[in-house]
Design goal:
The complex is a heterodimer of chains A (384) and B (249). Chain A is an all-alpha fold and 384 residues long. Chain A has 15 helices and no strands. Chain B has 249 residues and is α/β, with parallel strands linked by helices. Chain B has a 6-stranded mixed beta sheet, sandwiched between helices. A 4-stranded antiparallel beta sheet of chain B has the order 2-1-4-5, with helices on one face. Classes of the chains: A mainly alpha (384), B alpha/beta (249). Chains A and B meet through helix 11 and helix 12 of A and helix 2, strand 6, helix 3 and helix 5 of B.
Chain lengths: 384, 249
């Protein structure tokens, strides 16, 4: 959108008739009025004098005006359109007044809500002990534990993104095992390998989708640890260089997501109109060429939102690796919680971080999908 | 065409069932070089299945299909190679959705290493011009109307320089108003001497353009012959019944 278009859109917005001018705005005005009475702010710019009283007055006036209008509407239910309130001049004046009310509400919200949060944040950053008030303590522990939480956050992001990318590549390879049906014209040797490949695909996807990622992580981490240590006899410190929890978590996410992505890709490819492959084969292309040049590209492109979903799912599900000692976000928040003997406050911060992470990731992945001309997803997907 | 023309397609003893439903019951059928054969009949008569057996998109349960003397039904035959000389046009066009018009036409010739991209594009532009769509060479196929898509499909099949062209109800999915432009392209192809097997409900086309009309009913070829004979003096009662319904609408 160009600046001119944006300007024109803004102007036409302000000229339009809006619904619920009275109900919506006066509800908000009432809330803001209560904010001025009951929510004090240390660094308020409205103070306690004239500006504050002016705001309260304007809000009160708007609420009174709305009540009058609503009474008029209630008593003139069927003839409302003929009342003085619906005359074009009156409608325009009402709309402008409502914008004024919005403005006052915005000022009050900034003064009371936004500045309150800023105040609390300032206090908490300099404090040494908890405040014993819930919301400030949330900020207090978030501030105190910030380096640990950031480290955990970094690990979560790396493991989820890299793990899913690796899984995508592996899934592309794995899905080929299912897309090569044995045909009458294959000789026995080829048919054996095709059947073996198909069997492997089925076992792999069933096992890795049918067991929890937590269990898989434990098996992979401890299993390989014992295996490598048994062969090489390395000490604990050296083992950590070779096979750390980070590596194990990455491997587990990759293997797990491969199974899900392979099934998604398979479904997406099989959903492509069979006529596409028929047309390619009728031109003399082999089944393989038809798949690679026509069907596969379309199937993969349609599966792109699913791959984005998988990243978001893995961001959340990486939390299961706490239990093998992987220092991701959940582990970090448990550490902070243990250090400061606080539970709910810390976990709320963790939840907020996860939420922001998943929403940002979804937005980025949708933008990428739109660039690649693929369908986009809405909302945040559920876990494995 | 003269009786001395060679037989390009020969079908013998063809049988095909889908589950319990027997769709083709012992079909014997042949097409000579340069012949235009139209297959007509009601839905479910097996016309499309017969056509799709000719290039083995459907594998028959029994019988043989010979193309230029080679048995397609033999398990050791390289069917993909033979399909390069059999062109097919589908009812639902089946243009490659991930490619533009020109790439649709050049994909097969280039992939099958018959020619370089530049040569393939030149050939493709020639065929696109003959169907009247040279200006759309770089268009996205999704922007084309049904009639335009079908003409691109015909050009795409022609780019492989086939010996015979199979048309599976090419105009059944089109607006009545656009049917004409596709039939016109097919008419020109016939006049240029292309061997064609057309499954269609367009009786006027069958009457005016084909050398032979084949009437199928319930999986068998009930009657076949020159259009004047089949349309003018049908021998079988069922043929008369079918044609009466079609020609009196």
């Amino acid at each position: 959108m160009t600046i001119v278009e944006a300007g024109q859109r803004t102007v036409s917005f302000f000229r339009r008739d809006h619904t619920y001018v009275f109900l919506g705005t006066s509800a908000l005005a009432a809330v803001c009025y209560l904010l001025t009475r009951f929510v004090p702010t240390l660094s308020s710019f409205l103070g306690a004098g004239a500006p504050l009283i002016a705001c309260q007055g304007l809000l009160g006036a708007w609420i009174a005006f709305s009540l009058v209008a609503l009474v008029v509407k209630a008593t003139h239910w069927r003839t409302y359109d003929d009342t003085f309130l619906k005359k074009p001049g009156a409608v325009r004046i009402t709309r402008c007044l409502s914008y004024l009310a919005w403005l006052v509400c915005a000022v009050v919200i900034v003064d009371r809500v936004v500045l309150s949060v800023v105040d609390i944040a300032h206090y908490v950053a300099a404090a040494d002990t908890r405040t014993n008030l819930f919301f400030p303590d949330v900020l207090y522990y978030a501030w105190k534990g910030r380096s640990m939480l950031l480290q955990g956050l970094g690990n979560t992001i790396i493991v989820a993104v890299v793990g899913t990318l690796v899984a995508f590549v592996l899934a592309l390879l794995l899905v080929f095992l299912h897309l090569n049906p044995p045909s009458k014209r294959d000789n026995g040797f080829v048919r054996f390998w095709k059947k073996l490949g198909l069997g492997f695909y089925k076992v792999y996807t069933t096992v890795l989708r049918g067991t929890p990622m937590m269990v898989q992580g434990s098996i992979i981490y401890f299993g390989f640890y014992a295996f490598i240590q048994g062969i090489t006899g390395l000490g604990v410190a050296e083992m950590n260089q070779v096979w750390s929890v980070f590596t194990a978590a990455l491997v587990t996410i990759a293997l797990n997501s491969t199974a899900y992505l392979a099934e998604t890709l398979r479904a997406s490819i099989e959903a492509i109109d069979p006529g596409q492959a028929e047309a390619a084969r009728s031109l003399g292309m082999t089944n393989w060429q038809a798949m690679m040049k026509v069907v596969f590209p379309q199937g993969v492109r349609n599966a792109i939102p699913a791959i984005g979903n998988e990243v978001v799912i893995n961001i959340k599900d990486s939390s299961v690796f706490t239990f093998i000692g992987f220092f991701e976000l959940m582990y970090a928040s448990r550490t902070v919680s243990g250090t400061y003997y606080a539970t709910t406050e810390v976990y709320i911060t963790t939840a907020v971080i996860y939420l922001v992470l998943t929403m940002v990731a979804t937005a980025i992945l949708n933008a990428i999908a739109r660039r690649l001309d693929a369908p986009t997803s809405n909302g945040v997907p559920s876990s494995n | 065409m003269a009786d001395t023309a060679e037989t390009i397609v020969r079908v013998e003893g063809l049988r095909k069932s889908f589950g319990d439903l027997e769709v083709l019951k012992d079909i014997n059928f042949s097409v000579k070089r340069g012949e235009v054969v139209t297959i007509i009949g009601s839905s479910g008569s097996g016309k499309s299945t017969l056509l799709r057996c000719i290039n083995l998109l459907e594998e028959p349960d029994a019988g043989h299909v010979w193309f230029e003397g080679k048995d397609l039904t033999d398990l050791s035959t390289n069917v993909d190679k033979l399909r390069q000389d059999i062109g097919m046009v589908f009812q639902s066009f089946n243009l490659f959705a991930n490619k533009n018009v020109l790439d649709n036409c050049t994909l097969a010739p280039v992939t099958l290493k018959r020619m370089s991209k530049a040569e393939a594009e030149k050939v493709a532009m020639g065929h696109l011009e003959s169907v009247g769509l040279a200006d759309f060479a770089h268009a996205d196929v999704r922007r084309l109307s049904g009639g335009q898509r079908q003409r691109v499909a015909i050009a795409r099949a022609l780019c492989m320089d086939p010996t015979v062209m199979l048309f599976d109800e090419p105009t059944s999915a089109l607006d009545p108003e656009i049917v004409g432009e596709v039939l016109e392209v097919m008419r020109q192809l016939a006049q240029q001497g292309m061997t064609m097997v057309v499954v269609t409900h367009e009786m006027a086309f069958a009457r005016e353009v084909s050398d032979r009309v084949v009437f199928m009913d319930k999986g068998v070829i009930l009657e076949q012959g020159a259009p004047a004979q089949v349309f003018g003096h049908p021998k079988e009662a069922r043929t008369r019944e079918f044609l009466a319904r079609y020609l009196n609408d």
